[in-house]
Design a protein that fits this description.
The complex is a heterodimer of chains A (273) and B (297). With 273 residues, chain A is mostly helical. Chain A has helices at residues 2-35, 40-45, 54-64, 67-98, 102-113, 119-132, 139-147, 150-160, 165-173, 178-186, 191-207, 210-215, 224-232, 239-259, 261-269. The longest helix of chain A is centred in the N-terminal third of the chain and has 34 residues, at 2-35. Chain B has 297 residues and is mainly alpha-helical. The chains are: A mainly alpha (273), B mainly alpha (297). The interface between A and B is large, with 88 and 88 residues.
Chain lengths: 273, 297
């Protein structure tokens, strides 16, 4: 009897921990949805009942702050980065893994070595470079440096190593060129890995802050993180409209996570940040 | 034979072709900035012109107590936040793996959810929640836990607590997923055998679970360390430019401010960034030695 009671007390404690954890995890999301409908004072005070200013806040976010433009900037930059990044990195990973040579292994080693260099050390000289070519304040300034990712090359290389080389041999016997083999035979069977890589790159670019903060100088070029951060440093902060922008910035990632949870987690688990 | 040789050359050429685009990007956006930083770090900017100062930036750095304090803050976050987060993540993972199996998937999804917010978005949310007249204080006062509001973002001690709490909120679930995967890879037969031998649950945890999970815990500590060394978004937004009075200033933020806000001295900022590279390099070396040796066993 005593054993049973002790056992259930432990279970109760475990449930309690899980539920407290879940409430703490979810609360900011719940609160930010409520915040969209409140006036600035109620957001600050932490009213947690829905208010009636949703449409007013929406109007402020879209007219005073150009939410639509910021969203499109963010989306355009992230999607272009993913598009070029997936091609460049997966091709490189394929080259490193399926056409091994001593020289290329050495190149790969150098790439891996640079993974330990923190971004702050690269962005300052890179700023000078972009300023020399007058490319600051353009979408290219944000897209170009993010295309090549050593982590994605590393991640894709591990995935390609699981692809049987015999199938490539069979394709060669059938007379397929190397590029055709990669595009038509290898890639289609690795959709999940490509999806993980694409999600990882999308997240990195969608959320990036430090480099855009250095390069974006005009209001029309702002991405969502830059817009949110600059709203926070304004003299009067429109908290209701800000909550809408925060929500909008979270929604695409949330959708990606809920619909492709497996690939999402696979991509993140290998991440460095 | 000759034919095989030319075919080999063809494959080798194709291999180079595959990696060429990535290498071009690497040379322009990684190798060149690193090389040019060797030039920048010997110079001092004053307005638009700059002059050669040799190792002057490093001499200046040695007397820059604000910078070393900032590096110290990075270390404080590493020493306090990472163990706290790993313990919490471990607790949740063990409960979900062994204690309570019902709704495991749902809880895992919920705990992972903070990761979908960008660093900027959650910094903004936490800055509003932790205002002196904000939700958290009102909640604590209304439930009579506090009688006076705490100035979380204006008091140096509480600002650091806030950063640590925010980081823990954002990353605990992420690390928990690591641990959960690690726990699920442990063969249940080991526990059954331990059960037969009469080992208690606690003993099973410390003698079986912990040693087998150690590589995963180490990996997670390693990635968290490198992330914490680069902390930038949170101190810049959540506690407003490393405030109050530089209490939450981090190395990356200090370097950024040297280059873009306070002095516009790219030379000095570049020299400072070498310190961060050096620290990251030392950590990486320790990790490779440590994890590498484990792999050989």
């Amino acid at each position: 009897m005593n054993v049973v009671r002790k056992f259930s007390a432990a279970r109760l404690l475990m449930w309690l921990i899980l539920i407290i954890g879940a409430v703490l995890s979810l609360f900011p999301f719940f609160w930010m949805t409520i915040g969209m409908t409140l006036n600035p004072n109620d957001v600050i005070r932490g009213v947690i009942k829905p208010g009636s200013e949703l449409s007013l806040n929406w109007t402020k976010a879209t007219t005073n702050y150009n939410l639509g433009l910021f969203f499109m900037n963010s989306m355009k930059i992230a999607l272009l980065t993913v598009f070029f990044g997936v091609i460049v990195n997966s091709l490189a990973a394929y080259g490193f893994e399926k056409y091994k040579s001593k020289a290329r292994e050495r190149v790969f080693g150098i790439l891996l070595l640079t993974m330990i260099i923190p971004s702050i050390a690269v962005v300052i000289p890179m700023f000078k470079m972009f300023s020399f070519f007058s490319l600051l304040n353009t979408p290219s300034a944000i897209i170009l440096p993010s295309i090549m990712s050593v982590f994605i090359i590393f991640f894709m290389r591990q995935n390609f190593s699981m692809f049987p080389s015999e199938i490539m041999e069979a394709a060669r016997v059938d007379g397929a060129g190397e590029m055709v083999t990669f595009v038509r035979i290898v890639s289609p069977s690795m959709k999940a890995s490509f999806a993980s890589a694409a999600i990882y790159m999308f997240l990195g670019q969608w959320n990036s802050y430090l480099w855009p903060l250095m390069t974006i100088m005009s209001d029309t070029g702002k991405t969502l993180p830059i817009a949110m951060a600059s709203m926070m440093s304004a003299y009067t902060i429109e908290y209701g409209a800000l909550m809408i922008i925060v929500c909008i910035s979270v929604i695409p990632v949330l959708i990606l996570f809920l619909t492709m949870q497996k690939q999402f987690v696979a991509g993140l688990l290998g991440s460095v940040k | 034979m000759n034919k095989r040789g030319s075919y080999y050359r063809y494959l080798n050429r194709f291999g180079w072709l595959c990696i060429t685009p990535a290498i071009v990007f690497f040379l322009i956006f990684m190798a060149y900035p690193i090389l040019s930083s060797l030039y920048y770090m010997t110079r001092k900017w004053k307005g638009a012109s700059n002059t050669f100062v040799g190792l002057g930036n490093f001499v200046r750095m040695s007397g820059d107590s604000f910078f070393w304090q900032a590096v110290g803050h990075n270390f404080i976050y590493m020493a306090i936040q990472i163990p706290l987060m790993i313990l919490l993540a471990l607790l949740l993972a063990v409960i979900l793996n062994q204690g309570i199996k019902r709704l495991r998937g749902a809880f895992r999804t919920v705990f992972f959810l903070p990761c979908v917010t960008s660093l900027v978005a959650y910094s903004v949310l936490f800055r509003i929640l932790f205002q002196t007249n904000g939700l958290l204080n009102n909640l604590l006062i209304n439930s009579h836990i506090l009688s006076e509001p705490i100035a979380y973002l204006a008091n140096p001690f509480w600002a650091n607590v806030t950063i640590i709490l925010a980081l823990t909120w954002r990353w605990t679930g992420y690390n928990m997923v690591f641990f959960l995967v690690g726990l699920q890879n442990i063969d249940t037969e080991i526990y059954e055998a331990a059960e037969v031998d009469g080992a208690s649950k606690a003993r099973q945890f410390f003698r079986i679970t912990m040693p087998l999970l150690l590589p995963v815990i180490l990996f997670s500590a390693v990635t968290s360390t490198s992330g914490t060394m680069q902390l930038f978004d949170e101190p810049n937004i959540l506690t407003t430019m490393g405030g109050p009075a530089n209490a939450t200033m981090t190395a990356s933020l200090y370097i950024y401010r040297q280059a873009f806000v306070t002095n516009s001295d790219f030379g000095y900022a570049t020299a400072l960034s070498y310190v961060v590279v050096l620290i990251s390099g030392i950590f990486a070396y320790i990790q490779i030695r440590f994890l590498g040796n484990r792999g050989e066993k």
